[in-house]
Amino acid sequence: MLKATLLKATEAGGKILQQYFNGPFEVSSKSTLNDLVTEVDKKSEAAIISTIHEAFPDHFILSEEVGEIRKNSEVKWIIDPIDGTVNFANGIPLCCVSIGVEKDGEMVLGAVYNPFMNELFIAEKGKGATLNDKPIKVSSNTNIARSCLVTGFAYKWEDSVNSPLAVFERVIKQGLPIRRLGSAAIDLCWVACGRFDGFYEHALHAWDAAAGYLIVEEAGGKVTDFNGGKYSPYQQTILATNGHIHEPLANLVNGK
Question: pTM value?
Answer without folding.
Answer: 0.96
